[in-house]
């Protein structure tokens, strides 16, 4: 369970989040819409601890593991995809080669590829970004504009993946300026004027 209470964040003197509260239960799929610059990525950065809020709290269960894809994920550019994912998972001692291979295959990426990720397209990088957010069996998953650059079949695979995560009782929050067609959200919210409202 993720519980966000009265978050506020300003950059210099410009408020971005003024009063954001949200409660997300296991098995819930939540959408946060909002125009460019409305603060979606800032909210995700605060939830993951990349940024600190000026006010408010973020709480989750002690055994929750947070996974996130935020903006453009960074990789070891001259290494192949498996080396990258192994490196990231081993940081947390949660490397599961079979799960990673299955996820790569589902997204039509070759686990045995020797190509450096620097040669990957935007959509391919985006898929690797989605995979790193879920490959360690994370329980609270934040996906920032996850379908950016994805082709129709990959969007279809993404929708299947969201359904699987829901059945596994994961908490998933998707932020994007528009809805991903075909996804059935439990909460549909919009971030506007620094606050979350029902969409
Ligand atoms: N590190 C930062 N320093 C200053 N301003 C920032 C920083 N990060 C984001 N902002 C500003 O905060 C606002 C919200 O940005 P962001 O959270 O990236 O919005 P979104 O993800 O919804 O497009 C924008 O006006 C952006 O310019
Ligand atoms: Mg953003």
UniProtKB/TrEMBL annotation:
Keywords: ATP-binding, Nucleotide-binding, Transport. Gene3D superfamilies: P-loop containing nucleotide triphosphate hydrolases. SUPFAM superfamilies: P-loop containing nucleoside triphosphate hydrolases. The keyword Ribosomal protein does not apply. GO terms for molecular function: ATP binding. Pfam families: ABC_tran. This is ABC transporter ATP-binding protein. It comes from Lacticaseibacillus zeae subsp. silagei.
């Amino acid at each position: 369970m993720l519980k966000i209470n009265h978050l506020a964040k300003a950059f210099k003197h410009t408020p971005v989040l003024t009063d954001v509260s949200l409660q997300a239960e296991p098995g819930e799929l939540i959408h946060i819409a909002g125009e460019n610059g409305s603060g979606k990525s800032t909210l995700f950065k605060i939830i993951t601890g990349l940024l600190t809020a000026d006010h408010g709290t973020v709480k989750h269960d002690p055994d929750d593991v947070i996974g996130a894809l935020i903006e453009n994920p960074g990789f070891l550019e001259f290494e192949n995809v498996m080396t990258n994912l192994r490196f990231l998972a081993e940081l947390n001692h949660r490397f599961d080669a079979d799960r990673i291979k299955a996820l790569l295959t589902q997204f039509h990426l070759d686990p045995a590829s020797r190509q450096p990720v620097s040669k990957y397209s935007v959509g391919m990088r985006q898929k690797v970004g989605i995979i790193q957010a879920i490959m360690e069996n994370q329980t609270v998953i934040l996906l920032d504009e996850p379908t950016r650059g994805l082709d129709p079949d990959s969007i279809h695979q993404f929708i299947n993946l969201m359904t699987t995560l829901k059945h596994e009782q994961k908490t998933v929050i998707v932020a994007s300026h528009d809805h991903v067609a075909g996804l059935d959200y439990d909460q549909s919210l919009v971030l506007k004027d620094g606050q979350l409202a029902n969409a």
